[in-house]
Design goal:
Layout lengths: L1 E6 L4 E8 L2 E9 L3 H16 L8 E7 L3 H18 L3 E5 H6 L5 E10 L2 E10 L2 E11 L4 H5 L5 E3 L1 H5 L8 E2 L8 H13 L18 H9 L1
Parallel strand pairs: 1-4, 4-5, 6-9, 9-10
Antiparallel strand pairs: 1-2, 2-3, 6-7, 7-8
């Protein structure tokens, strides 16, 4: 199974060409604007893999939470590829993609939400497959330790890197704050193998937190 995976949830853009359990090509780069780099990264990954878009079995995309603009760019690009090739789309939640690289056991994925807040969720990981145990929350970093509890668990994500004081008794997995596109592809492949994918026309970003426009509308009522 050939999967192209896209992640634009943070300022680290990621693209992977993944086939039957192995990463054939991967591109990751720190970006200012995803629209400046994403199409080039996709082209480079496909060329390295030796694939035409029509060879894909599916396109995977991180769906949020994360950068509002980044998520829109990533999902629009993924949907464009799916419409052009007739291939299915699989949306992967950002926090689940982060937790996918944690060892078996309980893991917390913590993403910087800016505005002095984090997105967070707790997963139970088994053989690289995270199952949501609690969350998804958007909250001040000071409130997260109470959510995590006193039993040590693994923490991954740029929210934990920025607010290291929340780590406490827990174990920071690594210094990589963004999802890895190969993990996105692997999670998507498991769904596709079960015949599951997302509805292409109606799929959209999962912001979790209201956008500035939505907040403004609510205040104006």
């Amino acid at each position: 199974m050939k999967i192209l995976a896209i992640d634009t949830s943070t300022l680290t853009a990621g693209v992977a060409a993944w086939e039957d359990g192995r990463t054939v090509a991967e591109r990751r780069a720190r970006v200012t604007t995803h629209s400046d780099e994403l199409l080039s990264m996709i082209d480079q990954a496909l060329r390295e893999a030796g694939w035409e878009p029509a060879a894909l079995d599916g396109v995977a995309c991180v769906s949020g939470p994360g950068s509002f603009t980044g998520l829109r760019i990533g999902l629009a690009t993924a949907k464009g590829l799916c419409f052009a090739t007739g291939r299915p789309l699989v949306c992967v939640p950002t926090l689940q993609a982060l937790a996918a690289r944690a060892p078996d056991g309980r893991a917390a994925a913590v993403l910087d939400a800016h505005k002095q807040e984090v997105y967070a969720a707790i997963y139970r990981v088994s053989d690289g497959a995270p199952t949501l145990e609690a969350g998804e929350w958007v909250l001040p970093p000071s409130e997260l330790p109470a959510k995590l509890g006193g039993d040590p668990l693994v923490i991954v994500g740029d929210g934990a890197l920025r607010y290291r004081e929340i780590v406490g008794v827990h174990h920071l997995l690594d210094e990589d704050g963004a999802p890895r596109p190969a993990d996105v592809a692997r999670l998507a492949a498991a769904r596709l193998s079960d015949g599951d994918s997302d509805d292409l026309p109606s799929s959209g970003p999962r912001y979790v937190r209201a956008s500035e426009a939505e907040i403004a509308r609510m205040k104006s009522r």
